[in-house]
Design a protein that fits this description.
This protein is an alpha+beta fold. The protein has 3 helices and 7 strands. A hairpin with a 7-residue loop joins strand 4 and strand 5. The longest helix has 18 residues.
């Protein structure tokens, strides 16, 4: 299915704007669209029938992106935001400082961290999904949710550094 990519939804644009304000520009920019055009791929990275994507990857490593420890703190902050507001569906991240421990939290887990068993451990990024769906399928989420440009509260996140090194 040919879908004209138009970009990320306004809620994700607000999130990445706040991330840049808090952490600066990462070595690896925030990724919205993956291009996995498989009918079995439900990733919110795939554009919906309007060409809008509903997921972002936020890179967390000690090589010019958000440092790993701050990435875990950010993932926890996002989990709490999701629990309090319901403004997105789920997030995935490796929450371990040692051996990989991929975790997922979202509406389906009552916003508690549970083990994630997908193929990608998400060790170098946080996946935030507002909505998932097939490539080119309609977004079933009400537009007021993904068009929400209110603050995510990332600027108040405490961390070890003030920016990406």
């Amino acid at each position: 299915m040919a879908v004209q990519y138009r970009g990320p939804n306004p809620a994700l644009l607000t999130l990445t704007k706040e991330l840049r304000a808090r952490f600066g520009d990462p070595a690896r920019t925030y990724e919205f669209v993956t291009g996995y055009k498989s009918p079995g791929n439900y990733s919110g990275h795939n554009p919906d029938s309007n060409g809008i994507v509903h997921a972002v990857d936020i890179f967390t490593d000690d090589h010019g992106n958000i440092p790993e420890a701050e990435g875990r703190a950010l993932a926890e902050r996002l989990r709490l935001i999701g629990k309090a507001t319901g403004r997105f569906s789920y997030l995935i991240h490796d929450m371990s400082a040692g051996a990989p421990q991929p975790m997922i939290a979202g509406k389906h887990t009552n916003w508690e961290w549970v083990p994630y068993t997908g193929a990608d451990a998400h060790s170098d990024h946080i996946h935030v999904s507002i909505a998932d769906g097939y490539w080119g399928g309609p977004c079933t989420l009400p537009a007021h949710i993904y068009n929400d440009t209110s603050s995510w509260g990332i600027a108040t996140l405490a961390g070890q550094n003030s920016g990406i090194t």
